[in-house]
Design a protein that fits this description.
Strand content: 5-15%
CATH architecture of the largest domain: 3-Layer(aba) Sandwich
Distance between the termini: 27 Å
Helix content: 40-55%
Oligomer: single chain
Number of helices: 12
Number of domains: 2
CATH superfamily of the largest domain: P-loop containing nucleotide triphosphate hydrolases
Order of helices and strands: HEHEHHHHEHEHEHHHH
Radius of gyration: 21 Å
């Protein structure tokens, strides 16, 4: 699907991580533009390079789940490999039993108390990430970060202010306009001081989109669908499907399963929906 610039940045981030350097990669863009697809490509390439990949995704309806984004990213790994052998301070170990369900049989902590004491959780989670990255390169990939619960958003701000210096790549995909203001400020500061790299995911060019249409489709039809979609992969796919259904013609896009997967990777809320193209 094109994206040579973005894929080059993804490859460069993986290479830097393999060489032992830490970093932050930010993937920003409108709904349906392909942020999730690029983040998943980063995960695939990192795994191929023998990087420990930890993937978490925030959801709009779980913002009351304290540290939910980090639980989603870390808990399965903890459950699979256990906690023995990690060089963690005793206090961090105790805090992690309150945050990660798979960490062990720690004391039960009421959610309100966990929220009040979450600054201790920030320190403990950072200690865990540091311990993991001392053993091997680590990718922490967080999708739909704009929906993070308050504790997770504060944790991200904490990591940006106190980065893990060992081999850790923190990658986040998000919609800029929905990021909580305090975290948005921290992101902007990190980009400005050079500790983070930001990629604003642009629409597909007309040439990139042209490669998705089936051969023989009239140039005027290609141009109309592209212009109506604005180069957004999700809208391009939906408009192409609507065009073929309304006309009774064959599919206007070439059969490319990865195109549909990429287009539907980023959910598009109704409030972002664009008007249907004119017939």
């Amino acid at each position: 699907m094109g994206r040579e610039r973005e894929l080059g940045a993804v490859e460069q981030a993986v290479q830097s991580l393999r060489e032992g350097r830490s970093g932050v990669l930010l993937l920003a863009g409108e709904p349906g533009i392909g942020k999730t697809r690029l983040l998943r490509e980063l995960v695939v390439r990192a795994r191929a390079a023998d990087v420990l990949t930890l993937y978490g995704r925030a959801t709009e309806y779980e913002r009351d789940r304290t540290f939910g984004l980090f639980v989603d990213a870390l808990d399965d790994h903890v459950a699979a490999v256990g906690t023995s052998g990690l060089p963690l301070p005793r206090e961090a170990d105790r805090e992690l039993t309150r945050i990660l369900p798979s960490w062990g049989s720690g004391e039960e902590t009421h959610p309100s108390r966990l929220r009040e004491e979450r600054h201790r959780g920030h320190w403990a989670l950072r200690a865990l990430l540091r311990a993991l990255s001392e053993a091997r390169p680590v990718l922490l990939a967080l999708d739909d970060m704009h929906w993070a619960d308050p504790a997770s958003a504060e944790m991200l701000s904490y990591l940006l202010r106190h980065p893990v210096r060992e081999q850790l790549l923190l990658a986040m995909a998000f919609r800029q306009e929905e990021v909580p203001p305090p975290l948005a400020t921290e992101l902007a500061t990190a980009v400005r001081d050079g500790s983070a790299r930001r990629l604003d995911i642009a629409p597909l060019s007309e040439q990139e989109a042209d490669g998705l249409f089936r051969p023989g489709l009239h140039p005027g039809a290609r141009r109309r669908i592209y212009q109506d979609s604005g180069g957004n992969p999700f809208y391009l796919l939906e408009l192409a499907r609507a065009s073929s259904e309304s006309s009774g013609a064959a599919a206007v896009l070439a059969h490319r399963p990865e195109v549909e997967a990429a287009a539907h990777a980023d959910p598009v809320p109704r409030r972002y929906a664009r008007p249907s193209p004119a017939n």
